[in-house]
Amino acid sequence: MLESRLIVEGGRKIEGEIRVQGAKNSSLPLLAASFLSGGTSVIHNCPALSDAYAACRILSSLGCKCKREQHSVIVDSSDADGFAVSDGLMREMRSSIVFLGAILGRTKRCRLSFPGGCELGPRPIDLHLEALKKLGVRIIEDHGVLDCTCGQRPARCDITLSLPSVGATENIMLYSALGSGETVIYNAAREPEITDLGGYINKCGGDIRGLGSSTVVINGVPELHGCEYTVMPDRIVAATYMGAAAATGGELVLSGVCPQDMYSCMSIFSEMGCGVYPYTDKIFINAKKSLSAVRTIRTMPYPGFPTDCQPIVMAVLCRANGSSMIVENIFENRFMAADELRRMGADIKTEGRVAVIEGVNKLLGAKLRAADLRAGAALIVAALGAEGTSVISNVRYIDRGYENIEDELSAVGARIKRI
Ligand code: EPZ
C-alpha cells in the first residue's frame, strides 16, 4: 500500500477555531482499564486514532466486545477471560504494555511480549516490572516474552518510583485497583492523564486517592462495574495547534480544552511574544509576526514543560529572533525533528540532550520525513510557516496521535492536503 503524504503550502495565517480531540494518552490506559470491570463501559471523546483502534483489537483478542460509534467506544468485558496478547498486537503500539496491569488485575495471569521499542530510543519497562514483583507478581522473561502469574499480594505495599514514570504509575494503578490490599505509590506521575485514568476507575467503583499528587493510594476493591466516562482533552494536540498559529502569525481559538493542564505550554508561547488567553474550556492565542527566542526550555515531568511539546516548540523557535536552548530531560533521543528542520534552513545544533536554535528569518519548503509522532507534527508546524511547498512522508506516525490533522488545519486557513 502506498504511504500517504501531506502536501503543505506555507505562508498562510492560521485563523479560526478548532475543537480539540480527546487525549490519546488517556484513552489508551482507559481502554485497558475497561477490561478490569467485567461489565460494559461507554467511553466518550475517544479519539479515532490508529493507536486507539489497536487498543480495541487487543481488547477483542481478550474476549471483549468492542464497538465504536463516532467518538464513543462501548466495551463489554463481561465474557472476556483472555490473558495473552499476541506479539503482533503488542508491536502495533508501544504503549500496549499498559494492558499488563489490567490483564493481571482481572485474570491473575498474563502473557505478552516486550513492547516494541520506538523511535524515541529504548523504552525500558524495568520500573513497571519491579513494582509488579513487589506486589507479588511472578514474572518469567523468556525470549522477549513476559509470562506473569500473581502470587499472594501484600496487605500493604509501598512502592517508590525512581522516576515519576507515567506508564509505571498506570500499570500499578490498574493492577492494584481490584482485590484486597493497599498500595501506596511514592514519586508517582502527576500527569492529567493519570488523574483521568483514576477518575474512570473510581467511577467504576474503585478507591484511588491522591490523583495528581506524587503520592497515590490505591485500596483494592472486591469488584468493579462498567461506567460511562468522557476522556479529557488532548493537551499535546492543543499545544500543537497553538504552535501552528504561532508559526504563521495567526490567531486561533482552541475549544474543548483544559487550560489548567497547560500552564507550562501556555507560558512558553507567551514568552515567545504570543498573546495567550485561557478561559474555562477555551484558549485564545494570537501571534505577532515576529516572535522572540526563549532562553532555556527544560522538559520535565508534569507539571513541568511536557517532552511531547518539545519538537513542536522547536519548530516554532526556528524563526524566533535570537537564540533558544532546549534541554530534553525525559527521553534520550528526542531531537528527531532537528535533521528535517535543518533541510528547511533551520539553524539548530544538538549535543546529547541539549539543542540550541538560532532563529532564521525564513524556512523554505522541502521534502520531509516524519521520524516519530511529535517530530512529524513539528514538521507540519514548520511547513505551515515556511515559504513554498513541503511534502511530508511517513504520515502514519502522525496519524497515531492526530485525528484528521489536515482537515482540522484546512478549516482554519492552512493549505494542506493528503495524497
Ligand atoms: C507516556 O509514555 C506517554 N505515552 C508519552 O507520550 C510521554 O512522552 C511520556 O509518558 C512522558 O510524559 C503514553 O501515555 C501512551 P514514562 P511512557 O514511563 O509512559 C523512562 C506521545 O508522543 N522509563 O513516563 O512510556 C523512559 O525511558 C508519547 O504521545 C524507564 O527508564 O513514559 C523515559 O525516558 C511519546 N523505565 C522516561 O522514563 C521504566 O520502567 C519517561 O517514561 C519506564 C520509563
UniProtKB/TrEMBL annotation:
InterPro entries: Enolpyruvate_Tfrase_dom (IPR001986), Enolpyruvate_Tfrase_sf (IPR036968), MurA_subfamily (IPR050068), RNA3'P_cycl/enolpyr_Trfase_a/b (IPR013792), UDP_GlcNAc_COvinyl_MurA (IPR005750). The active site is at 118 (proton donor). It comes from the Bacteria. Keywords: Cell cycle, Cell division, Cell shape, Cell wall biogenesis/degradation, Cytoplasm, Peptidoglycan synthesis, Pyruvate, Transferase. Phosphoenolpyruvate binds at residues 24-25. Its EC number is 2.5.1.7. SUPFAM superfamilies: EPT/RTPC-like. UDP-N-acetyl-alpha-D-glucosamine binds at residues 94, 123-127, 308, 330. Pathway: Cell wall biogenesis; peptidoglycan biosynthesis. It catalyses: phosphoenolpyruvate + UDP-N-acetyl-alpha-D-glucosamine = UDP-N-acetyl-3-O-(1-carboxyvinyl)-alpha-D-glucosamine + phosphate. Pfam families: EPSP_synthase (PF00275). It is an enzyme of class 2 (transferase). GO terms for cellular component: cytoplasm. Residues 8-409 form the Enolpyruvate transferase domain. GO terms for biological process: cell division; cell wall organization; peptidoglycan biosynthetic process; regulation of cell shape; UDP-N-acetylgalactosamine biosynthetic process. It is found in: Cytoplasm. One of its GO terms (molecular function) is UDP-N-acetylglucosamine 1-carboxyvinyltransferase activity. The modification 2-(S-cysteinyl)pyruvic acid O-phosphothioketal is found at residue 118. Belongs to the EPSP synthase family. MurA subfamily. Cell wall formation. Adds enolpyruvyl to UDP-N-acetylglucosamine. This is UDP-N-acetylglucosamine 1-carboxyvinyltransferase. It comes from Candidatus Faeciplasma pullistercoris.
